[in-house]
Design goal:
Blueprint (H helix, E strand, L loop, with lengths): L8 H7 L11 H12 L1
Organism: Chitinophaga caseinilytica
Keywords: Ribonucleoprotein, Ribosomal protein
Protein name: 30S ribosomal protein THX
Length: about 40
């Protein structure tokens, strides 16, 4: 339940991977953020 645990968010950050607990940023999410910033 720490850095070595790949099933947790902290473990995924240390491992540099993405998944259910740490989803990778999608194009839709970044586009929505950019649009919200401009408005």
């Amino acid at each position: 339940m720490g850095r070595g645990d790949i099933k947790t968010k902290k473990g995924k950050i240390s491992n540099g991977s993405f998944g259910k607990s740490r989803p990778a940023k999608t194009k839709k999410a970044t586009a929505a953020k950019a649009a919200a910033k401009k408005a």
